[in-house]
Amino acid sequence: QVQLVESGGGLVQAGGSLRLSCEASGRTFRTYNMGWFRQAPGKEREFVAGISPTGSYADYADSAKGRFTISRDNVKNTVHLQMNSLKPEDTAVYYCQSLYYSRDYDPRHYGYWGQGTQVTVSS
Length: 123
What we know:
mainly beta, six-stranded mixed beta sheet
C-alpha cells in the first residue's frame, strides 16, 4: 500500500502558476501508475493528469492540456503537477492517487484519499 501526502497548494491570481507535490511512502512506488485528481466545491472528483510508472507516457484531461504537466521522480518517490496559466475554474482540492492499473482514471474506483492540497485561483 502506498501512502500519499500532497502539498504545494495555495492562493494564486489568474494566470499564475503553482507546483503541486505528492510524496509517497513504500518501496513499490516505482511500479505504480499515478494520477492527480481534483474536487471543486459542490462537484464530483475528477481526473486531471496521469503518468506511467517510468514516466514514458502521460495523459491529461482536456481542461489540463497545454497548461499542466505531470512528472515523477522514482528515486525521491514523488510525483508533481506543474500548473501554469491558472484559471478560477481550477479552484479545487487536488489529490494524488496510486492507480490500480494503467489509465484507471475513474475516481469512483478509489475508496481511500489523502487530505489533498487546496488550490484557489482568484480572478
